[in-house]
Amino acid sequence: MTDKIRTLTKRFPWATMSLYAIACVLAAIAASECLKRVELPVPLRYGLVAAAFVPWVLWFRALLRALRRTMDELQLRVFLDALAFIPPGVIAAAVAVDVLRHCGLLADFRWTTGTLALAIAALSLLGLLVSSRRYD
Amino acid sequence: MKNSLRELRAKRQWSQGDLADKLGVSRQTINAIETEKYDPSLPLAFKIARLFGQSIEKIFSE
């Protein structure tokens, strides 16, 4: 049975990753609902939060495997080049936003998880565009 | 790094897609190697050499 599952996850890496993504959302919803509705002792609450992260770990592992299985060496290199854009890009954006706030512009801007995710997505796309053009 | 991949492929009348399929890589990779924008890894260079029946040094040179 486990061999069959292993073969299926190898044959369909992106489907596996999608299933884990669904599991992540379901686990997050279940954990937050549980925390809201049920009075649990503190260690159990921490345990519940930690358990909700397990599908995220599995999703991340499935993502890495899917990338390795479906991309060739140049595509992986382009992808890694694109990822390299993110840390300096986010730092530059944070500094730029800070400077603009000191100048009186973007006074209402606050970094949230959403804006950070948006910045990372935009930088990844920009990175993919720049790094794939290098090898075209 | 210079290489004679384009000439070797042309001799066999293979398209970039044909060669990519035989090597298990993307067409973009073949194009990048032929235009010398990308140097293949050693395992891929060995695959190329084996496919064309030549040594790596004959296909790739500095």
Overall geometry of chain A: flat
The greatest interface here is:
A-B, 9 and 12 residues
Class from helix and strand fractions of chain A:
mainly alpha
Largest sheet of chain A: none
Residues in helix, % of chain B: 55-70%
Uncertain residue segments of chain A: none
Number of strands of chain B: 2
**Secondary-structure element series of chain B:** EHHHHHE
Structure characterization notes:
The complex is a heterodimer of chains A (136) and B (62). With 136 residues, chain A is mainly α. Chain A contains six helices and no strands. The N and C termini of chain A lie far apart (44 Å). Chain B is built from five helices and two strands. A two-stranded antiparallel ribbon of chain B has the order 1-2. In chain B, helix 2 crosses helix 3. Chain B is globular, with a radius of gyration of 10 Å. Chain B starts with a strand and ends with a strand.
The gist of it:
Chain A has about 140 residues and is mainly α.
Features:
heterodimer, A: 136 residues, mainly alpha, 6 helices, flat, B: 62 residues, two-stranded antiparallel sheet, 5 helices, 2 strands, 61% helix
Topology:
The complex is a heterodimer of chains A (136) and B (62).
Chain A: H1 2-11, H2 13-37, H3 42-70, H4 73-83, H5 86-102, H6 113-134
Chain B: E1 2-3, H1 5-11, H2 16-23, H3 27-34, H4 42-52, H5 56-59, E2 60-61
Helix pairs in contact in B: 2-3
